[in-house]
Design goal:
The complex is a heterodimer of chains A (310) and B (384). With 310 residues, chain A is mainly α. Chain A has helices spanning 3-9, 16-56, 74-113, 119-127, 134-145, 150-157, 174-198, 203-210, 215-244, 247-252, 260-271, 274-299, 301-309; strands at residues 58-61, 65-68. A two-stranded antiparallel ribbon of chain A has the order 1-2. In chain A, strand 1 (58-61) and strand 2 (65-68) form a beta hairpin. The longest helix of chain A is centred in the N-terminal third of the chain and has 41 residues, at 16-56. Chain B has 2 domains: 5-241, 3-Layer(aba) Sandwich (Rossmann fold); 249-379, OB fold (Dihydrolipoamide Acetyltransferase, E2P). Chain B is 26% helix and 35% strand. Chain B is built from 9 helices and 20 strands. In chain B, the strands form 4 sheets. Chain B has a 6-stranded mixed beta sheet, with helices on both faces. The longest helix of chain B is centred in the middle third of the chain and has 18 residues, at 184-201. Classes of the chains: A mainly alpha (310), B alpha+beta (384). The A-B interface holds A 201, 203-204, 206-214, 217, 221-222, 225-226 and B 68-70, 89-92, 96-97, 99, 101, 103-107, 116-117, 120-121, 164-165, 168. The structure holds adenosine-5'-diphosphate and magnesium ion.
């Protein structure tokens, strides 16, 4: 290999072949890492979405079969029929997410900064409920909240039954459903919050108080913004699955508390009106996407990527 | 430059008139069983560049954190400008800290970081902008105002931390090993810059360091700390020329220390018996001293001359006879180790100035001589 050879050909010299392949290998590396995940998403996410869209536009009935008719009116029709469920889902999920945040933030704060050597024990306690299935846990709540269950009888023996209002019930109320969702999704909020608080340098809060910030101002100006990636991640991880949840409404509520997940489930499995079920699923997905985009915009993309990194 | 010098002189003058800026009185801090600061009493004059110097773990950071309000003393009292602030939270104390890790807010730009204190104090917008700009100019970072701290080098971050504290014009600035994380070259450069800034702004700087050279270059007063107490307090010259404890003598530079007993005192001169040799010291050094003592002398203050040729010891000088056991040439000077007849090994640094200086090889019989006023007297360490 000589310099002359390299300059006349204008291409990489003979010895450079290896260098080129190295570069090519480097360029390929991300593709190699991404490929399995991408394949997974294509097979189990993109294809079902397209097929769902396809199904939603069909007409027919379970007995005679469905045929593609590009019936776009299924969207406005199912929206007008089930918008109360949709709004209820958003409301329940939103309330549950807020409750999760209010409960999980002090919890995560305590574990990150005050728990000392008990840290791992507390984290384990947060994850512990996951060791049993969500349905089993919710059935347990059903028993606890039942008319003659632990909660009601405790309230009765304390003479506080009137806090429950007219019905005298806990089970089968919106509160029960929201409480159930809050309980079931609490770890999804607590863990990202803990992760973002845990990596925070406590010296920053000291620095803020050194610069004339009260403890509250330091919390507002330093702790909260630095926990934003965790708040964002926790909110999404709680809110999104909560919108589509149907177990809590089914086990702790009545049809009066049914959420959009219950409707979709019954359309698919009981009524077997596949186009309506598919259209509703699609609508929920679009709503979630819009909410994520708005939230990400509000927080800035930098925060979003930090949240993803968290 | 001329104007600058005047400002400095003015600052020093007002400093003399006023009481201490920071006062610690019998301050003790315990962490469980561990005593980090032990009945410390210390007054820091207004406008001074004050260094707290000591080895790692001696309680410097704890002392500084108590002044800043981040730790509460177990007992004792802390005053800022004559006001008792022992129970005052940090955000209500008019001091600012430059933290060792800088503690810059990662989610804010440099400018926002620097503006943080002024915003809390509700300073008007235009004034805030002007002062932030000035502070950034002072540390030569005006061009990087919009950067985030994470995009800056260690030296730049250090200067942001300094600007963020200085911009508030606090009564005193507390610096906890502010140059500790930087490499040597940058450290030297920032030492100069820091002393310069201190003279320019004229506020009290309390600088914590374990680097004796840094303390001596920068500070006009140094408190040497050990085990939560102050061993000795004074200017760099006082501490170097007249250390009063073995610890200070060894922590600042090298020393030759010889166990000695006071044998006579006549007027200005006190005479010690140091392993058989007579060592004279200025008698004011033994005023009020009791217990076991050592006499000491710095290696560069000693002259060596051959003793075999019957050379004369200059009149009135202290002299120890012995022989050279090691001589190493290190360029600017030659370092000797001399075993005295009394059995002590002493270090001598002979400057390589002037021609015809003969290097005295091992085995040569020599007289090590120095003037009595270069001698100091230290308390002998228990167990040493
Ligand atoms: N928060 C703390 N908890 C327990 N011990 C501490 C704490 N802070 C400091 N100490 C102890 O107090 C002593 C002095 O520490 P410090 O003030 O940090 O020393 P320096 O800054 O001089 O290195 C050390 O022995 C240290 O272990
Ligand atoms: Mg320290």
């Amino acid at each position: 290999m000589s310099a002359a050879q390299a300059s006349t050909t204008g291409r990489a010299p003979a010895g450079g072949v290896r260098w080129l392949t190295l570069r090519r290998r480097r360029a390929l590396l991300p593709a190699i890492f991404v490929a399995p995940g991408l394949a997974w998403l294509v097979v189990f996410y993109a294809i079902p979405i397209v097929s769902q869209l396809w199904v939603s536009l069909q007409t027919g009935n379970p007995d005679d079969g469905f045929a593609q008719t590009y019936n776009w009116s299924v969207y406005p029709d199912s929206l007008s029929e089930y918008h109360t469920h949709l709004v209820r889902s958003l409301g329940y999920a939103g309330l549950a997410t807020i409750l999760c945040f209010v409960i999980a933030f002090p919890l995560a704060y305590f574990i990150a900064f005050k728990a000392g050597r008990w840290k791992s024990i507390f984290l384990l306690l947060i994850i512990l409920p996951f060791f049993t299935s969500m349905i089993v846990r919710t059935v347990a709540w059903q028993t606890l909240l039942a008319d003659e269950g632990f909660v009601v009888s405790t309230l009765r023996s304390l003479g506080l039954l009137n806090v429950l209002g007219e019905s005298g019930r806990v089970l089968a109320t919106p509160q029960a459903v929201i409480a159930g969702i809050t309980y079931n999704f609490l770890p999804f909020m607590a863990l990202p919050l803990y992760a973002s608080l845990e990596r925070m340098d406590r010296g920053l809060v000291e620095a803020a108080t050194d610069l004339y910030a009260s403890r509250w101002t330091a919390f507002r100006k330093i702790t909260l913004p630095l926990a934003a990636p965790g708040i964002f991640a926790g909110t999404l991880l709680t809110f999104i699955p909560a919108i589509g949840d149907y177990i809590n409404a089914q086990l702790l509520g009545t049809p009066q508390q049914y959420m959009i997940g219950n409707v979709i489930q019954s359309q698919y499995l009981n009524v077997r009106d596949y186009p309506v079920a598919a259209a509703l699923s699609f609508i929920v997905m679009v709503i979630v996407l819009v909410i994520i985009v708005i939230a990400a915009r509000a927080l800035g993309t930098r925060r979003l990527s930090e949240a993803v990194a968290a | 430059m001329q104007a600058h010098t005047t400002v400095v002189a003015g600052a020093v003058e007002t400093a003399d008139g006023a009481g201490p800026d920071i006062g610690l009185y019998d301050v003790t801090k315990r962490f469980g069983e561990q005593v980090a600061v032990d009945e410390l009493t210390l007054e820091i004059p207004k406008g001074s560049f004050f260094a707290l110097l000591g080895p790692s773990g001696c309680g410097k950071t704890t002392t500084l954190r108590m002044i800043g309000g981040f730790e509460e003393p177990t007992s004792g009292r802390i005053e800022l400008a004559g006001r008792d602030v022992t129970d005052v939270p940090p955000h209500k104390r008019d001091v600012n800290t430059v933290f060792q890790s800088y503690a810059l807010f990662p989610h804010m730009t440099v400018e926002k970081n620097v503006a943080f204190g002024l915003e809390r104090k509700k300073v008007r917008r235009d004034e805030l902008r002007r002062r932030v700009g000035e502070a950034l100019e002072l540390v030569e970072l005006g061009a990087l105002a919009k950067r985030r701290p994470t995009q800056m080098s260690g030296g730049q971050q250090q200067r942001v931390a300094l600007a963020r504290a200085l911009v508030n014009r606090p009564q005193a600035l507390l610096l906890d090993e502010p140059l500790g994380a930087l490499d040597l070259r940058l450290r030297k450069q920032l030492q100069i810059q820091l002393s310069h800034i201190q003279r320019e702004v004229g506020i009290t700087f309390v600088h914590v360091t374990h680097d004796q050279e840094e303390a001596m270059t920068m500070a006009d007063r140094i408190a040497v700390m050990r085990d939560g107490r102050i061993d000795q307090l004074g200017s760099a010259e006082e501490l170097y020329d007249q250390p009063r404890t073995e610890f200070v003598a060894n922590f600042l530079g090298s020393s030759n220390l010889i166990d000695a007993a006071l044998v006579a005192r006549q007027g200005d001169v006190a005479e010690f018996d140091a392993g058989g040799a007579r060592v004279r010291v200025p008698s004011r050094l033994v005023d009020g001293r009791d217990g076991a003592l050592c006499v000491g002398v710095r290696p560069e203050k000693i002259s060596l001359r051959p003793a075999d040729a019957g050379a004369q010891v200059p009149d009135g000088e202290n002299s120890l006879l012995g022989h050279v056991t090691d001589a190493s040439f290190v360029g600017v000077s030659t370092h000797y180790i001399v075993r005295t007849d009394g059995g002590h090994d002493i270090q001598v640094f002979a400057q390589n100035a002037g021609a015809g200086l003969e290097t005295l090889g091992p085995g040569r019989r020599v007289a090590a001589t120095w003037q009595p006023e270069y001698t100091f007297v230290v308390a002998k360490e228990a167990g040493a």
